[in-house]
Design brief:
Immunoglobulin-like, alpha+beta, 1 helix
Length: 211
């Protein structure tokens, strides 16, 4: 009887041990199973939004000066407005040596042979003609431009936009008007135009964009 009990106990022990071994193997198998890789994010990257180019700060205009009153005058006058400053750069050839009245006139019309189609000085504030460096002067009063012995004159000056402007809504906007070069010296005091003689060059002021 004791022999049978001992065999039964041994059988039970062996069965219990086998179950434990099976559980251990199953646990080991489960823990060794590699984790499935995460699916990659296949969503396309958002395209970069291009930055819009900044508009140029400068407003530019120019006048191509042609001969008038039988002269051989020609040249170009450039205007560039940035902020509250207007730069003026003129190069004129075919002049007699010496100083010549240099103004912006009210009409953008250089069609007549003597350039009188350009009208009088541009004077939106209805003040007297004068020295551009003084307190009282026309918006179109640019004083004199001096020609060398070869008859070529250059002028570079910066003016406040309160003097003249290229802004479309400004009362003193000179775009669409005319630059006139005179045959004589502007005395900066005689009314209404400085007694500066015949108009020997004229050019209409037009907007343009630099290439």
């Amino acid at each position: 009887m004791r022999k049978h009990i001992a065999l039964a106990s041994l059988f039970f022990a062996l069965s219990f041990s086998a179950c434990k071994d099976d559980e251990a193997k199953e646990t080991t198998k489960t823990s060794e199973t590699p984790t499935a890789p995460k699916a990659k994010d296949t969503a396309p990257a958002k395209p970069a939004i291009p930055t819009a180019p900044k508009a140029s700060e400068a407003i530019m205009a120019q006048a191509k000066v042609i001969a008038a009153s039988g002269s051989k005058v020609s040249g170009t006058v450039h205007f560039s407005m940035k902020g509250e400053t207007v730069g003026v750069h003129a190069t004129i050839s075919g002049l007699a040596p010496g100083e010549h009245g240099f103004h912006v006139h009210e009409k953008g019309d250089c069609s007549s042979p003597d350039a009188k189609s350009a009208g009088g000085h541009f004077n939106p504030h209805s003040v007297d003609h004068g020295d551009p460096k003084g307190e009282t002067h026309h918006a179109g009063d640019l004083g004199n431009i001096a020609a060398n012995a070869e008859g070529t004159a250059e002028l570079t000056v910066d003016l406040p936009s309160s003097f003249l402007s290229l802004a479309p809504d400004a009362a003193n906007n000179i775009v669409g008007r005319a630059v006139v070069v005179h045959g004589g010296v502007d005395d900066l005091k005689s009314q209404p135009s400085g007694a500066s003689g015949p108009r020997v060059g004229c050019g209409v002021i037009e907007m343009y964009k630099a290439e």
